[in-house]
Amino acid sequence: MNRLAGRTKATDEGMELGKLILREIAYRKLNFAMGLLSVAAATGCLVAQITLLHKHDLRTEQILAAKETQTKAALAKLEDDFRKITLKLGFNILILPKDRTPNDLFADDQPPVYLPEEYADRLAKSRVASINHVLPTLTQKVKWPERQRKIVLMGVKGEVLIHQGGQKPLLESVAPGHAVLGHELHQSLGLKKGDSFAFMGRQFAVSKLMDEKGNQDDITLWINLREAQELLDCRGKINAILALECNCAADRLAVIRAEIGALLPDTRVVEFASQAVTRAEARNRAAEQAVIALEQERAGRANLRAQREAYAAMLVPVALAACGVWIALLTWLNVRDRRAEIGILRAIGVRSRQVLAVFIGKAGLMGVGGAAVGVGAGLLMGLYAQEPASQEIAARLADPKLFLGVLAAAPLLAAVAAWVPALLAASQDPADILREG
């Protein structure tokens, strides 16, 4: 019975306290409204700044993702363009016997030095750098006995298939018994496609006539590699390997040389087609610029965020402190103006803790109401300030944890701010107050 009576008494006291708080608010509407607005301003400032920073992060994420996509697309286009350019330019790597130069291939006063033909197969089966085409050749300056003139003889066969497979050959193979003639040869000899001619005792049919190139190709006769090896008595041997490396920038050449040197002993690697190198360097520079631009954008957004964060770190504490001081001042003014009423309440039996609870409860309700208004206003300011948020970003800005945290913290801040003035009100002696009155 005593426990039930205690509960009933506590319930009655709670109801009475609630009525006192509501009456206090109704009697001092302006005081309550001013306190509520101060809490709304402080919480709105906090929510707006946090929302702005979150919006900035989401917008940064969007911008960087878009730029990364653009960069990848641009680099992919550069790669494809460069691949097409290198294919048009033809072979750009020449592998020779050690201590030989490209000029030695066309000199008739140098003793021949050969490489095993299987070197081409070995290179094609390896994964050296980014070599995509491999063509073994046998090249030698010889006398054409039937025509009494010197020419460049080049024996070629189809490109050796490399490990990826599926490449379109840069240079078509020459079928046995057929020949391809350079511009100077077919012009001076009056040969046309389909004509037959004798060369070193063998008959060949013209399968293709080359356009003028202004180099050794104009006096070159291409025949099948096997037939060239038989005519020069060097079966199973070659003296050069042509290759296409699709990333022939200068910084790759040293890597290619080292890898090929380890794979093919007693060889040297010569890079030619400087135009391809220039194109590769231009492509690499463009790629570097794209990456630099992306990093600059990232750094710029990070710097902007740091500035906004510094501003928020200064503004929010000032706003919260001002709110606390303002609520404390409003409560103190309220206590001072209502000393007589407080004395009467104490005299008719209202306890000091109830007086304390009235002012603390009033401050807490200021906090709850102000936080509700401030959260909404702060969210709206964060959404539309500086740059309006897109629908996608706006949908991701709502943070229930932040809102609940603000709704819980604001009443606590208001109660703490009102604590000292409320404690002064509760500790006053009603007899002294009434005597003064």
Structure characterization notes:
The chain is an alpha+beta fold. It folds into two domains: 12-71 and 288-436, no CATH class; 91-272, no CATH class. It is 62% helix and 14% strand. It has twelve helices and eleven strands. The chain has helices at residues 2-27, 29-89, 118-125, 183-189, 225-231, 250-263, 274-337, 339-347, 352-384, 391-397, 400-426, 430-436, and strands at residues 93-97, 115-116, 131-144, 149-156, 178-181, 196-199, 202-209, 220-224, 237-238, 240-245, 267-271. The strands form two sheets. It has a nine-stranded mixed sheet.
Label this structure with key terms.
437 residues; alpha+beta; 2 domains; nine-stranded mixed beta sheet; two-stranded antiparallel ribbon; 12 helices; 11 strands; 62% helix; disordered N terminus
Task: Put the structure in a nutshell.
The chain is α+β, with helices and mostly antiparallel strands.
Task: Produce the secondary structure layout.
Elements: H1 2-27, H2 29-89, E1 93-97, E2 115-116, H3 118-125, E3 131-144, E4 149-156, E5 178-181, H4 183-189, E6 196-199, E7 202-209, E8 220-224, H5 225-231, E9 237-238, E10 240-245, H6 250-263, E11 267-271, H7 274-337, H8 339-347, H9 352-384, H10 391-397, H11 400-426, H12 430-436
Parallel strand pairs: 4-8, 5-7
Antiparallel strand pairs: 1-10, 1-11, 2-9, 3-4, 3-10, 5-8, 6-7
Instruction: Please describe the biggest sheet, giving its number of strands, its sense, and whether it closes into a barrel.
Output: 9 strands, mixed
Strand content: 5-15%
Structural class, please?
Answer: alpha+beta
In the sheet with the most strands, the strands line up as 6-7-5-8-4-3-10-1-11
Tally the helices. Answer: 12
